[in-house]
Design a protein that fits this description.
CATH superfamily of the largest domain: NadA-like
Distance between the termini: 46 Å
Structural class: alpha/beta
Radius of gyration: 21 Å
Number of domains: 3
Shape: globular
CATH topology of the largest domain: Rossmann fold
CATH architecture of the largest domain: 3-Layer(aba) Sandwich
Low-confidence stretches: none
Bound molecules: 1,3-dihydroxyacetonephosphate, iron/sulfur cluster
Helix content: 40-55%
Order of helices and strands: HHEHEHEHEHEHEHEHEHEHEHEHEHEHH
Number of strands: 13
Mean pLDDT: 97
CATH class of the largest domain: Alpha Beta
Number of helices: 16
Strand content: 15-25%
């Protein structure tokens, strides 16, 4: 079926998407993450970073259908937060985040049990939004919360105000960057390797924050050498990176922040400013196109392959089905997992 849509001329395809959106009216909203391709993102009713899209999904009470142009964990979050009579659709079922899969619920639970025994329960679990629903559910069950790159610091502070120790899934780099940013010294941060829990436990006793050994291949591609190289060519350049980058890269950059923070910083820069950005290339290119009066480029070329999988053809395929009264590519989360994941997400949405 997708093949039929692939043969449509672009103008015709775009016109059909617009008509289907009109026909579905208030029954539909389309959410799009900043890393989506322009030809898809142009149809989003709302675009945002992970936190903003979770907040929007939680507030959409009218739409019967929420199409999420992003990756699986984002659509799962929307499915957990929306009402039971709302349907969340991921137009490309293969659009998953490999980092989210680096911690399964069982592995996370094993680490939780081992560290809880070590510290007599004086421990709170926090998971990055880029995680499986079952890991969010574990955090919900154990009094913890979800965070995104936009609110990791207040969530870490919130956790450490309640308990002496924190266990963070599944991004080592966001975990370390956040712990360092709130003043936890490097020697109080321990790495948990799910492939070797016994060795991980041996490293834990002196730690305040334990971070999971997971990473994003899009952001670990950026290096300090890239920063030195670009500064050699442009002495007055400003460098901003996403906090999924390694700590040494964040330290060598001028600023770091979520995708929406990066957008705000670029928008606020003076005409003529030179800015190199360490994040996914679709966002960097969009900013370069939007601000021709500034010199904007990537720190290095880095594409999120699964974000890039969603095409206008995928979007039209699900819209075409909806207008014909059929729902395809629905994202569901089992009720028990959803119940606890929702608690962890709601805690995140209330912490300031
Ligand atoms: P943001 O929450 O900053 O939008 O990032 C999401 C993401 O997947 C980064 O890799
Ligand atoms: Fe996952 Fe990295 Fe892609 Fe974000 S950029 S969705 S963390 S693989």
């Amino acid at each position: 079926m997708l093949r039929d849509y692939e043969e449509l001329p672009t103008d015709e395809l775009f016109a059909r998407i617009r008509r289907a959106k009109e026909q579905l009216g208030d029954d539909l909203i389309i959410l799009g993450h900043h890393y989506q391709r322009d030809d898809v993102l142009q149809f989003a009713d709302f675009r945002g970073d992970s936190l903003e899209l979770a907040q929007i999904a939680a507030q959409q009470h009218r739409a019967r259908y929420i199409i999420f142009c992003g990756v699986d964990f984002m659509a799962e979050t929307a499915a957990v937060l929306c009402a039971p009579d709302q349907t969340v659709i991921l137009p490309e079922a293969e659009a998953f985040c490999p980092m989210a899969m680096m911690s399964t619920g069982d592995e996370a639970n094993q680490a939780w049990e081992m560290l809880s025994d070590l510290w007599g329960g004086d421990l709170l679990p926090i998971t990055y939004q880029n995680s499986l629903a079952e890991v969010k559910a574990l955090c919900g069950r154990k009094g913890g919360a979800v965070c995104t790159s936009a609110n990791a610091e207040p969530i870490f502070r919130w956790a450490l105000a309640q308990k002496e120790h924190l266990l963070f899934f599944p991004d080592e780099h966001l975990g370390r960057n956040t712990a360092l940013a709130i003043g936890i010294p490097e020697e109080k941060i321990a790495l948990w390797d799910p492939a070797d829990p016994k060795m991980s436990l041996k490293r834990a006793p002196g730690a305040k924050v334990v971070i999971w050994k997971g990473m994003c291949y899009v952001h670990t591609r950026f290096t300090v050498a890239h920063i030195h190289e670009i500064r050699k060519r442009h002495r007055d350049i400003m460098i901003i990176v996403h906090p999924e980058c390694p700590a040494e890269v964040v330290r060598a950059a001028d600023q770091s922040g979520s995708t929406s923070t990066i957008i705000r910083v670029v928008a606020a820069a003076a005409p003529g400013a030179k800015i190199a950005i360490g994040t996914e290339i679709n966002l960097v290119q969009r900013l370069a196109d939007k601000y021709p009066d500034k010199t904007i480029g990537p720190l290095a070329l880095s594409l999120c392959r699964t974000m890039h999988l969603t095409t206008p053809q995928h979007l039209y395929a699900v819209l075409d089905a909806l207008t014909a009264g059929r729902t395809v590519d629905r994202v569901t989360v089992s009720p028990e997992i959803a119940r606890w994941a929702r608690i962890a997400l709601e805690r995140m949405l209330t912490v300031k």
